[in-house]
Amino acid sequence: MSNLTFKLFSSFAATVFLLVAAYIALPKIALLSPFFQELMHYAPYAVIMFAGLLSLRFGRSRVVCVLSAIGLAYLGASCYLKDGQGSFSAKVVFHAVSILLPLNLLIFIALRERKLLSSHGVLRFGFILLQVAAIA
Fold first, then answer.
1. Coil, strand or helix at 48
2. Which residue from 2, 36, 117, 118 has the fewest beta carbons nearer than 10 Å?
């Protein structure tokens, strides 16, 4: 097995393993104590922060930008879409996340890896913050 094939297979296997583990663990959340059930609302933020710190440590600015876009999209969705899409602001946030998040992922995949604290990194974060300001 070549090195490229092994990398592709291991990446795919890790993704499938995580999805299966999440599928198995999801029904067991109801069995947790109320304290831990409340903590589960903050688990995505903790995972995003941990992944962001790791990517900062290893100099992966694109990953930091993608994680910030995902984190802000999750924050907007969890704040505005709790009660469905009844209000106008909830509809705006839903459509903005549905359109802008995949677009941001596509853009950040196409960009080259640059230092985070350079002018390119500041422009990338400014691009994300500009979208948040336009939605708000």
1. helix
2. 2
